[in-house]
Amino acid sequence: MAIRKASRTRLIGALTAATVALALGACGGGDSDDVASDGTVTLEFAQWWAPELPDGSFDKIINEFQTANPTIKVKLLSGPYASTKQQLVTGAASKTLPDVVGLDGAWVNDFAKQGAIADLTELMGDAGYDASQLASQIQLEGKTYMIPVVNFVYPLFVNQDLLTKAGVTKVPSTRTEFADAAKKITATGGNVKGWALPLDTAVPNGIQNDVMSWLWASGGSMLADGKPALTTPQVKSVVEYVKSLNDAGVIAEGSLTMKEQDKVEKFTTGQVGMMIDSLAHINLVKENAPDLKFAIAPVPAEDGFTGKRGIPYASWGIGVANSSKHKAEAFKLVQFLMDAKANAELATLANGFPGNKTAKPDFSKSDPMFEEAFKIYQEGFPANEFVGLPKSEDLMRSFDEQLQLVLTGKSSVDDALSKSQDSWSSVIE
Amino acid sequence: MTSLTVEKPPPAEPEAPTRTKNTLAKRLVPWGYLSPTVVLIVLLMVVPIVMVISYSFRDNVIVQENSVFAGFANYTEVLTDPDFLAALKNTFIFITVSMVAHLLLGLGFAMMLNSGMLGGVTKAIFRVVYVLPWLFTIAVIAVIWRLLLDPSGVVNYVLQTLGVISDGVNWLGDPGSALWVVTFVNIWSGYPFFMISLLAGLQGIPGELYEAASVDGANPWQKFWNVTIPQLRPVIISMAVLDLIWTSQQFALIWMMTGGGPLNSTEMLSTFTYKLAFSEYEFATASASAVIVLLLTMILAFFYVRQQRER
User: Which keywords are on file for this protein (chain A) (predicted)?
Assistant: First the structure.
């Protein structure tokens, strides 16, 4: 009996284990229960915004949406930018994107071509939405796939103490003035350099923010009729200018592996006099260096340039997954976040500029620099030609590698631009 | 003894079906217990590996709906890519130098901690100090060393103050030094594991062997070569092969310190594959690259398993 009992116990144990195994196997499939018995729909919203906003502030905005739409619940999937990107890339590939997704303009082309994100033009039409209030829309072949919710511009940051110490009385407005100021700041010695240029290839956004910004500031373009145009005199003059700054020794050392955060750190600690950086970092710089006197200005343009200056920007964009079963509800969330009131609230919290033209961010409690930056933003135009391009990070990286060859004297400017042109042409059809 | 004679075996005929049932149940029991592990292995290992292998033989995978069979074209493309060959060379240098240095440092420190020359307190302090790098996560290690190695960082300051160098060195930004610097950081972060394992091995060597060697007139060097090393050989070989496998998978440290740059001088097979997949969205060639890495790793794993069997 004892033996039989032991056998039975073993068998029961084994059956339990097998049941667990079957349950594990079943975990992989099946839809999530996103519609409750009372008809309430649960939307998943993946973004990197919540971690970058003050604690709990994004949840508050989402709660406002839920109160206004009692039949819709929103489940926030929040993570850092890099991991959000990886999750969305794999989600897009496996058609398992959350219903609503935070998007960077650099991802739109690839996601849209995969059919992973929905045509918002159609959803706007279905909802009777007035798109004229939107500051911009990211489109592909005439269809909108992303709406920028909050924009962050990248002006020139200038350490006024270093500028004064170097004997420069005016914040540089032209390339010549910038080079002159950078040389004078470098000449003050003590490991201080004029400019920081992050060219790390892991996240090659330095090409967009710190290099191409010189081109856009002078009204130039790296594209012609949507095709790469990197061998033009305008682009060449930018690369030659960056090279001349490098040859003059005014760029902080280590730029070939420097990351954006290193650049901000060097500016904050007074190791560089000038940098081109996101407005979102004003508070960070002030927090870490309360005594640092700095100003912001438009990115310097070519000497004699009188046109409107393009100012680089990055966006917190929003889109809807094509695989979502609740596109109409998902668009209601988009619509809510683009509403003048909520959008202004979000822009104020994020220290960015609203994606709704009629939204007025509240600068009363912000640093006066944000109001100043808003004027710069309004006087120029937001420029970021990488938005909407296919494999844009790869385009930046291939240009970055060629620029690194130029700066290390291993390639001429013409060769580098010609190779970049070939590389880009194989990507941008 | 008496109980054996009292309890008669049950009649054979009526028990036959029960025995069959019992036999079947007995056979199923181990599989039942194994089933969660088998399911997990199939779901988390076999399925992804098979998927990646199938992707490597197709084109337009993942990002397009209609993938096409491409034969070995992806493998040809990867194996003839100069960047892949450079990454292969860098990975070889990185893993072999790291493994040799891990072994030498680990053995040296382990012998020091095992020697009778140091007191108990001193040994405890050294033990804590030596094991410290192992306690940091890779992200922290990358951030710390990036700060230390900054052109205007502590390392340059100390070396300049000591008169070792006259001008600040651009450790990570110079294509000539970057690979050696990341290898150094990897050595720093990984030697404690060797040290701990070898220390355990050293403590398992019977003292009689050294006494016998002393009786035979062996000097310390001869004891080391003829007693210590042969006794540690199984641990050394296991650790070396495992270290080669682990280091070949190292991604986070390289990605966070240099991103494979400058000028691809620190590009490894792992960063090369990652860029193909998540920057270029070339999942088919990325899969081919991953399969090549898998095959290379399997060669190392084969040696490891064979060595373990021999033990």
Answer: Cell membrane, Lipoprotein, Membrane, Palmitate, Signal, Sugar transport, Transport
Do A402 and A280 reside in the same domain of the chain?
A: yes
**Domain count within chain A:** 2
Phi/psi at A153 (5° precision)? -90, 160
pLDDT tens, B102-129? Answer: 999 999 999 999 988 888 888 889 888 8
Sorted by sequence, the CB contacts under 8 Å of residue A391 that are 6+ apart come out as A109, A110, A427, B279, B280, B281
**Nearest residue to A292 (alpha-carbon basis) of A100, A105, A426, A158:** A158
Residues 163-182 of B with CB under 8 A from A: 168, 170, 172-175, 178
**Domain annotation covers residue A36:** no
Predicted confidence (pLDDT) per residue in B213-231, tens digit = 999 999 999 999 999 999 9
Residues A70 and A92 in one domain: yes
State the Cα–Cα distance between residues A354 and A318, nearest whole angstrom: 13
Q: What is the pLDDT of residue A53?
A: 86
Q: How far is CA B256 from the centre of its chain?
A: 19
Q: B212 to chain A nearest CA, in Å? A: 52
Predicted ipTM of the assembly: 0.78
Smallest Cα–Cα separation from A297: which of A181, A401, A424?
A: A181
**Calpha distance B164→A156 (Å, rounded):** 38
Domain coordinates in residue numbering, chain B: 94-262
Q: Are residues A325 and A278 in the same domain?
A: no
Minimal CA–CA distance to A219: which of A205, A203, A193, A238? A238
All residues of chain A having their beta carbon less than 8 Å from the beta carbon of residue B283 are 93
Q: What's the CATH code of the domain at A92?
A: 3.40.190.10
The tens digit of pLDDT for each residue in B236-254 reads 999 999 999 999 989 999 9
Note whether B285 and B274 are within 8 A (CB): no
Chain-chain contact of B36 with A24 (C-beta, under 8 angstroms):
yes
Q: Are residues A70 and A137 in the same domain?
A: yes
Does residue A359 sit in the same domain as residue A288? Answer: no
Percentage, residues of chain B above pLDDT 90: 69
| pLDDT value of position B66 | 77
Pick out chain A residues at pLDDT < 50.
1, 27-32
Query: Which CATH architecture does the domain made up of B94-262 adopt?
Result: Orthogonal Bundle (1.10)
Clarify whether residues A228 and A164 are in a common domain. Answer: yes
Of B32, B258, B261, the CB nearest to A15: B32
CB contact under 8 A, A7 and B35: no
The average pLDDT across B198-221 equals 94
d(CA A39, CA A317): 29
- A12 touching B (Cβ < 8 Å): no
> Do A221 and A191 share a domain, yes or no?
yes
pLDDT, residue B180, reads 97
**Domain coverage including residue A101:** 41-151+314-383
